[in-house]
Amino acid sequence: MPGGRGGQCFRSQGATSTVRGVGLEIKDARRHCTDCEWHLDSLVHWFCRMACHMMTRLFCILLLTLAVTAPGFPSANPSREFRLRLRTRIQPFPNSKAAAEANFDEWIDPSHTAIIITDMWDRHWCRGANQRVAAIAVRMEPVIEQARRAGILVIHAPSDTMSFYENAPGRLIAENAPQAAPPSEEKILDGPLPIDDRDGGCDTPGDHEHRVWTRESPLLHIAPGDVISDKGAEIYNVLNARHIHTILYMGVHANMCILNRTFGIRQMTRWGMRCILVRDLTDAMYNPASPPYVSHAQGVELVIEFIERYWAPTTTSTELLSAIHASAAQ
To answer: Thinking of the domain 82-329, which architecture would CATH place it in?
Structure first.
């Protein structure tokens, strides 16, 4: 309070006593009623104390509001746990290598879950991939927004573009996260990819692999509190600090970056994370002119089935949104 000292408010001298900020003014009090000076002083003091109390409460509310909305803090109003339908591949008969589709439900806690948006660049060297990435980004953005509102952490991982995001709030969150040593890697049985991508996997003739990307697609919004990183160790630090153990993967490409980046499904699974691929928000680098000589869409599905069998179950954006909305409606 102005003029306050040692917790006591200033009382004006002379014929007028005023309590600023409360709107009370007692004029010519001492001239008209010398007998009630003590009561007037007490009243002024009481109003000062009330004003100080109100300002203190408002200040605390302001600090809390800033804390939960500042970059690096999770949603202030996350949804409850939701049950998500997942698809995997099982080997029902031990004496047969044939795998069968299986579906099951898993409880997801938004406060312990993150989305990693993988290599959704502004531009790709392969024209076919470029067109598909743009289409995926349009479908992905509203899903990310709903997940963010539900309390799921969003991590943007456009590899090789961190210089573009230097000193961005999301980049600083990743760089300043407390360092944590990952656990010993688990040994997990793997298998050969069902497609041949040794030629780079581009399905548009005449395109040659070279670097053309500079940032993440501008079709995807980076909101306050989102994280930006392309380093597995940094991302693990963030996940560990926030007690996150479930990762939803979106982006490209399923047979390359989503599987093999330092923050990809293979590495995070070996570090003990529960990884889930959102299968309708991904693509594969596959050229139908290469084995097994199927369409691009069939090649993508083969890669998804491979991931389901060896590395992670999958879901769809429709299943994810339905689960989030059902939880919020409860």
So the answer is: 3-Layer(aba) Sandwich (3.40)
